[in-house]
Design goal:
156 residues; 4-stranded mixed β-sheet; 3-stranded mixed β-sheet; elongated
């Protein structure tokens, strides 16, 4: 098959996947029920409102961890914190499209537009190894994933 035919087939598969996810997932009012397509049209704007930055408030005096988002990776890919600590996670989006840093099990989501930074605070962390990812369509599949590790507090 010529290269042009492969390209057209690939594009068709992507479009069919998007349509299939839309039909299967739909768009719900509850963010946690929306799946990736719901994030795509969050706040009535494609990709959560290009140019907007949203996050939870930062916590005064908490340790700050900066994660750089590029197209399509987190640096560092692993975050380590201590159980029970309060942490501010700063997402520095050095990419050309919107990105978020989400840890679903911890309820953490930091959203930043291209060239912007956003900070979210999180407390009462329990020991464990948690998945970290960008929830924008295709970003995690392209490698934008990592690990959020909460280590036990050995001082107690």
């Amino acid at each position: 098959m010529p290269k042009k035919g492969l390209l057209i087939t690939g594009i068709a598969l992507v479009v069919l996947s998007l349509v299939g996810s839309l039909v299967q997932g739909g768009v719900s009012e509850n963010l946690s029920d929306r799946g990736w397509f719901g994030h795509m049209f969050e706040d009535g704007h494609m990709f959560g409102g290009f140019g907007q930055t949203r996050s939870e408030p930062s916590i005064d005096g908490a340790e700050e961890i900066t994660v750089v988002a590029t197209n399509f990776a987190f640096e560092p890919p692993t975050i380590k914190v201590t159980e029970g600590s309060a942490v501010n996670v700063r997402l520095d989006n050095q990419g050309t499209v919107p990105h978020d840093l989400t840890v679903p099990e911890l309820g953490l989501r930091v959203v930043a537009s291209p060239g912007q930074e956003a900070v979210a605070g999180i407390t009462d962390l329990q020991p464990g190894i948690y998945e970290m990812l960008c929830t924008y369509p295709g970003h995690a599949d392209a490698g934008m994933t990592g690990t959020f590790v909460v280590e036990p507090d050995e001082s107690t």
